[in-house]
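Open question from group meeting: does this chain pack into something compact, or does most of it stay loose? Before anyone orders reagents, we agreed to write out a predicted structure and look at it together. Recording both the input and the output here so the notebook holds the full record.
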Amino acid sequence: MSPTASSRALLIASLAALFVAAAGAAQRLASARPRDEPPVANAAYDGRFTFARLRYTTGPGGYYYGGLPAWTA
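Structure tokens returned:
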């Protein structure tokens, strides 16, 4: 390997390692952010049936699977 080729390989390997480290750091910072939703306390429960509405957020892409809405799959 010539000095130019080995330095180019070293540069590419260094950039790849830098990108992997940056992606890992970005994931760690994203999971450490506080959530915007306030905590919810439990309602008083007397043993009778209680209707509960669940609230959640979807991931990127919404409810779609394979580019199609879930009810047509």
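Observations to bring back to the group:
The mean pLDDT is 77.
Helices lie at 3-32.
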